[in-house]
Fold each of these.
Amino acid sequence: MSGSGAAPPAGSAGADDTGGFALSGLAVGYARRRFGRRAVQPVLSGLTATARRGEFTVLLGPNGTGKSTLLRTLAGLQPPLDGTARLDGVDLAAADPDERARRLAVVLTEREVPGLLTGGELVALGRHPHTGYTGRLTAADHVVVRWALGAMDAAHLAGRRVAECSDGERQRLFTARALAQQPSAILLDEPTAFLDVSARVALTGLLRRLAREQGVVVVASTHDLELALRVADTVWLLDHAGRLHTGTPEELTAAGLVGTVFTGDDLVFEPGAGVFTVRGERRGTAAVDAPADLAPLLRRALERAGWRPRASGDTGPADLAVAAGPDGYRTELDGAVEHHPTLGALTRWAAEARPPRP
Ligand SMILES: Nc1ncnc2c1ncn2[C@@H]1O[C@H](COP(=O)(O)OP(=O)(O)OP(=O)(O)O)[C@@H](O)[C@H]1O
C-alpha cells in the first residue's frame, strides 16, 4: 500500500468539519421474534463516545465483546436497541440508503465474494453513490478508482477476478472500494486480519493519513493491539463487562485499562514498552552486555527462555551475565563461565540453565 505520495482527488470528505460520530446512550444487540413475542438480546448498552473527523479511532476488545455488533449498528446495518449514533448530526439508522452510502463506507469481515467481477469493477462500485441515475463512470470517477487501487497497492489486481484473489488481496480490494467511495467516514471491521506484516503497517498508516489529510472519520476494530496502540489517535476499548473506555492509547495504558482487559494467565502487558510478553517460568535476572542493535534481540531470546533481562542502563546485580563478543556469547552463572558460538546455542542453553539456589 503506497498511498503516501498520491493524494486522493478531492471528494465529499471534509466538507463539513464540525462532525464525526457521536454515540449517545447507545445500546446494540439483537432482537428476534419468538412465539410471536419480540425477544431482545442486548450486547452492549449505555455507550457514549465520539470519533472525531481527522482522527483514527481504533476499537479494541476481547473476542465476543461486541465490536462487530457495534460497527454494524454504526453502519446503519442493524437498528440500535436504544439511544442514537449520529454521523455529522445525521442518524444513519433513519437515513435513506443513498444518503448513507454517500456519507459512509463500510468494510466488514463477512462479505459475499462477487465472483464474476474483476478487482477494478469491484472498486468502481464504490463510485456508485456519486454516479447518479445512469450509473456511468466519468473520467473523474476513473481517476478516483485508479487512485484507490494504487493507494492499496492493488493496481495489479484490477483485471483479476475477485474470486481468484487471496484473502489478503480481497481485503485490499474491498478497502480500495471504500476509499473510492470518498465518504465522510469509513468503518472497518478487522481490516488487517488477512494482511502480512508490512501490509498491516501500511494500511494503518494509510488510514491515519486519510483521517488527517482528508478530515475523514475512520473507525477500525482490530486484534492487532500493539500496532493499534502505536497508530491510533483515539482508542475505544471494550472491557469484559461491556463498558466502553475512550481516550488516547497512553491515557488508557496509564490508567491500567489495556493491561487489565488483555492480560491473562499467559500474557502480561508491559506499559512502558507498549508490548505484550508471554508470562512463563522466571528463572532469575539477566544482565546483557551487547551492541545496541543486538541487545534487544538478546533480551527477547533470554526472556523467552524464562529469564528477566535487566533494562539497558540498569547495572544492578543479576543472576546471569551474558556478553556478546566477536566469537559468540560468554555467560557467567553462579561462578561458572561458558561460551556459546551462536545466538541459537545461547538460547537453548539459557532455557535449560538454572539460577543458583538462594
Ligand atoms: N446474528 C447474531 N444474533 C445473535 N447474537 C449474535 C449475532 N452475532 C453475534 N452475536 C453475539 O453478540 C455477541 C458479540 O458478538 P460480536 O461478533 O459483535 O463480537 P466481537 O467483539 O466482534 O467478537 P470477535 O472479536 O470474536 O470478532 C456475541 O456474544 C455473539 O455471540
Amino acid sequence: MLLKFTKMHGLGNDFMVIDGVTQNVRLTPEKVQQLGDRHFGVGFDQLLLVEPPDDPDMDFRYRIFNADGSEVEQCGNGARCFAAFVLERKLTGSKRIKVQTKGGPIELRVNRDDEITVDMGLPKLEPWEIPFKADRQSITYKLEVEGRDEEIAVVSMGNPHAVLLVDDCKSTPVERLGSKIQRHNRFPENCNVGFMEVVNPGEVNLRVFERGVGETLACGTGACAAVVAGRLQGLLEPTVKVNLPGGTLTITWKEQDLPVLMTGPTTRVYEGHIRI
Ligand SMILES: N[C@@H](CCC[C@H](N)C(=O)O)C(=O)O
C-alpha cells in the first residue's frame, strides 16, 4: 500500500503525520519502528495518526506513537502540528478543534497559521494518576538514583513526567540521569524526565529525556509539566517562557483547577509517500 504522509515539526520535535480519515492505515509497533528509523525509514520522534473520533462530541481521534513503536497518551508539540495538518488538508474548517486522545480530550485553537494554542487540560498530580509509587501526594518526592536522593516533582499531562530542578541545563547529564529516572521502578509505565533551570519567575530553560525516544529538541507536555511543577513550588509566574533546545514555548497555568495552555509554532517540512 502507498501511504501518503506529511513531515512536520514543532521546535525540532519531529513527526510523521498520517491522515487515517481518508486512508486505511494499519500500523504495528514493528512498522512504526521501521518508519521511525532515521537511516532506513522516514525518521521521527513521534508518528501522529489522525482518525475519525469514537466520541460524537469530538472532531477527531489523535493517536501518538513514539519512535520505539509504543503508543502513548499525549504529545503537546504534536497537537499543534495535528491542528495545522487537519486545517491544511481541509479535514475541518474550524479554528477550534476538539480532539480525543488516549490521555483525555484536548482542544486546539488556531491563532495564526503558524502559531497555535492548545488547551492541554488539567494536570494530574495524585501519584496513582501519574502513575508513580508513593504513599501520599506531595509537591516533591525523594527518588534514589545512583545511590543519591534526587528531588523530583511528578505530573501527568495525560502522559507521565518527572521534573528536576537543576542549576545549569547545559551541563546536566540528561541522558545518563534521564535514562535511570525514566525506567525507575517507582514509575510502572516509565516516564518522561525534564531538567528545568529557572532563569527568573517568567522564564526557564528545559531539556527533556523523552520516554520511547531519548532527548528531543522540544517536548510540549514536558514544558507544561515543568511549569506546573515550578508553580507548585512557588517559583514561577502564571505565564512562563520555556526555552528548549529547539526554541521557545509559552505556557500558562493560572490556577489549580484551570487547564494548562501551551502556545507555539508548527512547521511543515515536506509531503511524501511510502510503500508499507
Ligand atoms: N514530544 C511530546 C511527547 C511525546 C510522548 C512522550 N515521549 C511519552 O512517551 O509520553 C510532546 O511534545 O509532548
